[in-house]
Amino acid sequence: MNKVNIICMKWGDKFPPEYVNRLYGMVSRNLSLPFRFVCFTENNDGIRDEVEIQGLPELDLPPGAPERGWRKLTVFKEDFGNLKGKTLFLDLDVVIVGSLNEFFTHPSEFLIAHDKKNPTKIEGNSSVFRFEAGKYPQILDYFEKNSEQVKSEVRHEQAYLSREIHKLGKLEYWPDAWVPSFKYRCCPSWIKSWFKVPFIPDNAKVITSSVVDTHLMSAATAADPIYIVAEDSTPYAINYMILDKHEIDDATRVRMLSEVSEDASSAGQTVSRTTVEPTSTGALTDEDFGFSETFEFFPQGKTYDPVAETDS
Predict the structure, then answer these.
(1) Low pLDDT (below 70) residues in the chain
(2) What pLDDT is attached to residue 185?
(3) Fewer CB within 10 Å: N-end or C-end of the chain?
(4) Residue 212: which region, alpha, beta or left (left: phi > 0; alpha: psi -120 to 50)?
C-alpha cells in the first residue's frame, strides 16, 4: 500500500518545535497505515529526525498585507511538496485521541471538520481536513489574484476554502463525533467549568482548537503580549478572560472583555470591560481587588484594541 500523507505547517514563533514533535508522536501511535509526515516550515530547529522537513511555501500577497492564517491555502499549489494522493492536514494544536485510519478510508474527495461556532453555516474548521494532493489549484490562484476582495467577503481562510469547495459540490464533513471542538464539546459551560474538568467525548478521534493559552496579539505587535485563558461565546457575544502575562501572581491583572455583535444592536457595539488587580493574596472584597467595570457604546465600525487599550 502506498503511504498516506500527514502534513502540518509551522511559521513564526507562536508554536515551538515541541508541538510538531508531539503531533508526530500522536500520529505514529494512532495510525497503523504506512505514512509520510511532512512539516512545512522556515525553521526546523528542534524538530525530531523522523519528520520530513520542507520549506514554507510562499504566499503571493500585496506588499505589507497581513498573512495570518491564509498561508494554509498554499497546500493547493501545483506540485505542492511533491505529494500525491490522500493528504491529511492537521493544525499543530490538535490532540489525537483515537485511530486515524478512518480519516483515510472515509469516502469523499474533500473532508473537513464542521465549524461548531457557526453550526448553521457551511463553514468548515480547517484544523483537520483531507484533500487529494494536486487538486483545486484554482482556489489558491484566485485568492492570490483577488486577496483584498476575498478578505472583504470572508473573515479567514477556512471560510473562503469552505465556500470555494462548496461551489465545486465537493464539501463534506467528518462525522461530528470524530472531531469535537475542545471549546464547544469538551469543556463544561461557563458556570459548570468552575466545578467540572474538560473531558474526552465518546468516539472522539481528533480534538480541535485545544490551545487555551494563546496570544491575543503577538510580541511583534505588542511589547507586552496578553493571553486569553478562557472564552465563552453566543451567537451575539464573545466573552474573554484575559491575563496580562503568562504567570499568575499577586501582580497579575485579569480582565473580562465582552463584545456584543452588530446583530445584537443596530446602533453599534456594546462593550463591557472588567478589570481585576489583586493587591494581596489575602484580599477578600471587591475593593481589595481594585474591581471596576465600564460599559461603553461605540458607533459601528469602531473597534477596541485590548493591548494598546485604545479605541479606533
Answers:
(1) 1, 64-68, 189-196, 210-312
(2) 78
(3) N
(4) alpha
Type of residue at 34: P
Domain ranges of the chain: 4-183, 214-311
Beta bridge partners of 78: none
* C-alpha to C-alpha distances, 274 to 125, 239, 294, nearest whole angstrom: 31, 11, 7
What was the pLDDT predicted at 15?
85
Phi/psi of residue 248, nearest 5 degrees = -110, 120
- Dihedral of CA 184/121/208/67: which sign? negative
Q: Write the DSSP string, 209-238.
A: S---SEESS-TTT-SS--EEEEEEE-SSEE
4-183: CATH topology: Spore Coat Polysaccharide Biosynthesis Protein SpsA; Chain A (3.90.550)
> E strand or H helix at 287, and its extent?
helix 286-289
Residue 270 pairs in a beta bridge with: 297
Which ranges of 154-281 would DSSP assign to H, the alpha helix?
Answer: 157-167
Quick one: how far is CA 175 from the chain centroid? Answer: 19
The answer to whether the Cα torsion of 154, 272, 118, 13 is positive or negative is: positive
The pTM of the whole model exceeds 0.85? no
Strand, helix or coil at 291? coil
Question: Which amino acid appears at position 48 of this protein?
Answer: R
